[in-house]
């Protein structure tokens, strides 16, 4: 059954050097617009839900281009404010083999989204229209004003009986020195508000400062996640373990912890075309499974397959339909579809 | 010794999304013109024969572009009629890893080729000028009028002492429900007319409804193909077994059955750049080997190498010369040629 | 005040050779999706209205791409059915100077839109949600089934108190031999249903078979249009006179006939980048002016400026905002805006 | 009636910077293959004749690309030898307004064509198959060996009753210092062999050293051309007067002198997209008119219109059909053809 | 005689939509790096001088790309500091005819250049190595810190006997409300330091608040400029009058005031391909003329021709050599150079 | 410590078909400028040294483009002469899997570099300014005049106390029949002049005609290289062993022989994007290690890592900084850098 899902987050302009040249070799860039909130709502819109983005974009040519792009992705734009002057940007140079991809951010702190003052969003009315809201740790890292928006919105949704999703997504470069210390109180506040949380054992250990005696990743996970769920009264915790192989393939296995029980997906190994944003595809799969009432087994396999397919898609934003993901869960690699 | 070879078949416009974007992401398409008959005659023209295409194209800008493209491939266009209004088209989105390639056809049933009425081709005179003619099962699936053309032309060539090649090439989507049943009488008619047939055990089982007790593909093949050759009095039957591996490689082994004897090629495993049309390269290798009087061993290795190289070439149509194929048969993967 | 506007019409795929090459010279195409209904609703959406397209597109990759493209243009897609198999297409080769542009259609008669059977659209409910509906003569030329849809929808809107717009847009190639004769009864039926009609004296003379003694275009116009308005009880008739100059410029003057009075725009002369769809920009300007209650003077100047700007925009579909059009109406050609 | 026309000349690779960048700004080039002989035979093939190019190209990837390109243009390649190592090349940077286009040649003197030794072409047998042969002054400027080929071929054609066309086309940079003096004897030899000559009064004055008292171009022409025709017993002399206007347009008027009578075309003024090779389109129009038995009036208008259209076509080589040229002769600039 | 010329200014990244699409239509951008200082030093380096840019760029991939680009232009990069985090950017959408070009700035105030703290440049040592230094009003508009750099550097050069050039270049959007008032004291300080000033009567009236009774532009110029020269003891004042014509052409006439005498260039009218940065080409022509000791007549004609050619060049930065400019001063528009 | 390094060698224009099409399929080329000397000096400039190229380029548009390109790479161009007419060129078609890459040279023997007469370079003064000079066996293969330049320059540098590097780089196609015999005396002369030599056991066996009883490559190397070092009094000999694997990966291990001791790098296996020029990256690593006083272990690992990274970079010329290479030496393949 189709739901109304919102995400609160920044829209970034992605400026990608085509092919494998460096920025100092090429002369053209491909551009698109993305962000964790964009990726999650676009994926859910493709699954048949109504996906709202709650964000701010400038009323100029760059902001217009961003809105057009979001519309193309199927995102409903009625909760997007047009204000401020800049869009955050990042440059992407594709790696090849032994040479890793490289991301260079342009100034995002002065963006329309990050300079929106308090009271500018009508969270009260938005909360009435939506069933689920999604937040992530990247947004939480921005500044006090943005954090205030997040928490206000989360509370409003909760008060209206909606579901709050929080993706921990800790980025060290955004929090700076003593980052874990700075981040912890904000993370705890969000965890208390959240019903569904995306994280794994590393977030528990580093951001929340929890301890475990285990050494194996999965054992650490199974030791810590139930404690997190209990402490912050979280219904569902889900996440992935990723490993990067030498031959341009990644391996991914997903988990979901719900009703005191862990369910793990198969470990998928696959070639990677575009890695950025693939985590958001996994998140969208978990949210979709929960909204549709899938079994935990189906939810975690669906999310893992959605994540895998997102690595084969150009751009940050997942593009696969529910039926394409379901087919990937059951079939082996096939010949051309014709 | 250079021969005159004709193929009867439709010219399709291939509209391919560049790179790995989906049609709903991109804004440009690469176009080219192909078809089984185009691919086979172009390959044979590159081997030094005169390759005629017998087809119909509209007398408009799209038809002009098709003719120019066929000329570029070295195809002799004097047997191409200009009539009707449309060219059949298909869209191709390249797959990557776990995401398969996807072909979407536009309306081909209204094409110039498929709406040519009886009596429009002068098969009688064409038959006098050619040594070999090639037909395929895709054309046979079109409509009664096209099937009538095929059979008329095949008989005319046979009466003039020419060689008839028929590639079974059964496409389920083209025959629709109860397809095997509908197709069988037409296939049988073509097999009776054919001297060289491209097929494998699946065609024997599914299209011709033959039975075997064997379970292994090769054993099925060795059980059924001699029976087919006998029943329809076919001199040469050739084909391939293909398997698709997870890591973007395919494996291919070819066979030829001639003088009651099977000859198999080495099993080749190779990276795939563009899979469409590679089967036609194998066919062109078999025809060339037969026309040049190669030993069955050389013919089947040549055809398999031609097929392998066609997977490394952009577009549907094989582009390798005889000497390039012969070199591939003997050398290991090399450094740059300079 | 923002209105709800729908258009009923086909979505065509435009396949354009980039630059000035011919289809037989190039190897890439730019693609986009357009159509009179697309152009008009997209333009009105950009002016702040809600623009619905009522159409049918196939549930395949080409249909998905079309829907994404329409969403990017800001069109609301909730009235678009997904059914059938094909999208109508046309190829465009850009002319230069003495060499005219050339359009080659692919088969549109088998398109999803043109093969939709009766009863498939829920016109009754759509009519309740919209203030204005737009139809055009191109759609009227398709087939009986499409014409039946048009008339049913027009009546439903009229019954709900909405405004019906009809753009005569007669295309000789679509009606074939004795076209005017075939077209006339259908045009008359639409004119009786319409409140706002886009046409000029040529439509009156050729399609409606009306006579005038005048020889000058404007005199013919002023003689015939009031008679049309009276006969079919049409509130507003608007249209343009275009002349094509040798130096790659066109001249355009618009008129509106309302309350028994003609109002003419300035005659605008301007360089042309992309002529297709510019007439729809003029239509959108007239509709906007009428919906906003502009004076006839402002409406016709606004429509003419919108039409002029559309000639400077890449693609069929107008992209200018209301403020950009208003600025063009008052300012002379300026230096860079920075 | 369709004729067999050959041209003897070099195939050059054209490497063009796309758009308006300089070679020191850009990083991609568009390439094509052309040459006076290529342009003339391709144009005549498009008019329905069989066009042979007599030339030499290396048996490597560049030579293969050239042959494919010529085939695409409709040129019959059976008289092209494959020998030597290099293809002559030139770089083209498009000018804009006040900045002229710039051509930079790479080494053409070492090309396959220019290093072909005597006796390599079977002119004797070629001459039997052709009705008309075309030569030009650029080829004449190369070296003694090439000149020997030219004259041998011209004589062979003449002996077989064929028509010899010679385009004077004097290029100062190719003949170097004292160029007129060096060139004159070779030009005279070709003029004695020729039936149809492309030239104007400048060739008569500078290459042939003839004198006139007239000062106006047309008067000089009318004074000198009859003398040339008489002295060298030439049946038809044709050529153009071109003037370059400031606003990116050129003006062109053609003449033909036949049976002691001058016929002039209208003076055409038109926008220029690609000027190179347009003179060859004029030549092809004259040859076509003469072969088809057009009146001098029709021939010269046809040639001028062919020349004008060639300025609107991408690349050196004319692409217009006979019917497109005839339509241009009668119609004014039109709207889109659809 | 070759001089050492420095410019102090920001490097901007130009992100241009190719062709005539809007940012909300396209998906690729062409990028380059420019700025008034970049344009002037690159032009002078092309004339044979050593051109230093004094600026700051971040030590990341974007900064590396900028440095590579400046090196390609021939700029000596030894005075470029690598510090800070961002490069200022602007987006450019090309206008066409009635639709003006549009520039959208991204955040430049946080750029490496604009956040360089005092004492970071070693102006003392730089001043010893250079003969001429160039500053402009855009830089002056940035912030106090940048203004302090400018004035410190200007004084250092002056003390070392070098020449100070100041281009007034007032941009209203950069100074904001009451801009003229804020700007005036800074402009006056720079004018007192400058030897060569680029300006016209508008700068005198609006920035310096001077009054004139004249109404005609040239009369205003001739009234005010001598007063400015006298008041601020400036040796040379030069500038242009530009008018923008409807047909995509501009007209430009240059002046130089030196030794109490005005010299004017011819009024040039020309087609415009890329207008941005063309003013810097004019400036570079004036500086070159002064450094080479050209007569005022030659200097002003050279500068005007340099300016005109810069309008025909892709990108902000002039690319013409001295000989190309001199040729343009004497020749009419020519045919292809080959 | 930053050094002054020069290389003497030809600049070649690389004309590469984009993607995987053949030259006979495509219509665009990417171009760049490279050569062994270009690659080595550009790599060393990126490591912080001053890199001079000693070469000759024509004073035309192609030469200008080459100079701009070299400047972009960070090469100091003050030792580049502008003379002659042509730049050597090569066409590159990318291989895929079983189909090898193919290089087709255009005429390089007539290039500006290869036709420079004696006495044109001021080697005497150049030698005073540089610490190290690099030569290679490709240049040695050209002609007597070029060889004379090489030896003269090597002697001049040696007399000034500089270091001479010689890369054996024997190309059979350049020396023709009996190539080893022709080459040997010139190689011996260069080896006598060299301090650092790039070679492996094959050069010793084939060019120098040395014998070994060993059969294993490494044993042959360890047998022959010390003898070479001794015979020609060479301080440092370094080189690689490469093997090409079926799955589009190469394996590389480097060695350095210095102070009578062999040091070997780890054997690196990696995916290959662009193989051309990667050997020059290895050379640049050896030179940098020697200039910086790295231990042999660090030098050979640094050179091998530099070589590996160069296979992942678009174009012939290495683009990695010292810090990127050092990081690759220590880290495993990572996720995106952001």
Please give a structural write-up.
Chains A, B, C, D, E, F: This is Sugar kinase. Chains A, B, C, D, E, F: Pfam families: PfkB (PF00294). The structure is a homohexamer of 338-residue chains. The two termini of chain A are 31 Å apart. With 338 residues, the first copy, chain A, is α/β, with parallel strands linked by helices. Helices cover 38% and strands 23% of the residues of chain A. The longest helix of chain A is centred in the middle third of the chain and has 16 residues, at 144-159. Chain A has helices at residues 36-46, 61-72, 123-129, 137-140, 144-159, 172-175, 179-193, 201-207, 217-231, 278-292, 296-310, 322-330, and strands at 4-8, 12-16, 28-34, 50-57, 80-82, 88-93, 102-105, 132-136, 163-167, 196-198, 236-244, 249-258, 261-264, 268-271. Chain A is globular. The model of chain A has no long low-confidence stretch (mean pLDDT 95). Chain A has a domain at 9-36 and 55-116: UDP-N-acetylmuramoyl-L-alanine:D-glutamate ligase, CATH 3.40.1190. Chain A binds chain E through residues 15, 18, 22-25, 27-32, 60-62, 64-65, 67-69, 85-87, 89, 91, 93, 102, 104, 106-107, 109-110, and chain E through 15, 18, 22-25, 27-32, 60-62, 64-65, 67-69, 85-87, 89, 91, 93, 102, 104, 106-107, 109-110. Strand 3 (28-34) of chain B pairs antiparallel with strand 3 (28-34) of chain C.
């Amino acid at each position: 059954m189709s739901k109304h899902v919102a995400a609160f987050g920044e829209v970034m302009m992605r400026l990608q050097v085509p092919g494998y040249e460096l920025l100092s070799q090429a002369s053209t860039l491909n551009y698109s617009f993305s962000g964790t909130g964009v990726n999650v709502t676009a994926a859910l819109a493709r699954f048949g839900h109504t996906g709202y983005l709650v964000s701010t974009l400038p009323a100029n040519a760059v902001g217009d281009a961003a809105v057009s792009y979001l519309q193309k992705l199927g995102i409903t734009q009625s909760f997007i404010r047009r204000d401020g002057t800049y869009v955050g940007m990042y440059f992407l140079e594709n790696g090849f083999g032994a040479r890793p991809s490289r991301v260079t951010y342009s100034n995002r702190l002065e963006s329309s989204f990050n300079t929106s003052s308090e009271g500018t969003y009508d969270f009260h009315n938005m909360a009435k229209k939506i069933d689920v809201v999604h937040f992530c740790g990247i947004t939480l890292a921005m500044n006090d004003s943005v954090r205030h928006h997040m928490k206000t919105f989360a509370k409003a949704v909760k008060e209206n009986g909606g579901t709050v999703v929080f993706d921990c997504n800790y980025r060290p470069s955004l929090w700076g020195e003593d980052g874990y210390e700075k981040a912890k109180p904000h993370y705890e506040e969000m965890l208390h508000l959240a019903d569904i949380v995306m994280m794994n054992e590393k977030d528990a250990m580093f951001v929340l400062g929890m301890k475990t005696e285990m050494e194996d990743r999965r054992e650490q996970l199974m030791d810590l996640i139930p404690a997190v769920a209990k402490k912050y009264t979280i219904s569902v915790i889900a996440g992935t373990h990723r490993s990067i192989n030498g031959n341009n393939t990644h391996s991914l296995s997903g988990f979901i912890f719900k009703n005191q029980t862990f369910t793990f997906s198969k470990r998928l190994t696959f070639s990677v075309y575009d890695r950025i944003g693939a985590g958001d595809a996994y998140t969208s799969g978990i949210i979709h499974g929960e909204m549709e009432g899938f079994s935990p087994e189906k939810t975690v396999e669906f999310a893992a397959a959605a994540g895998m397919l997102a690595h084969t898609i150009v751009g940050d934003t997942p593009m696969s339909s529910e039926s394409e993901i379901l087919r990937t869960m059951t079939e082996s690699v096939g010949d051309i579809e014709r």
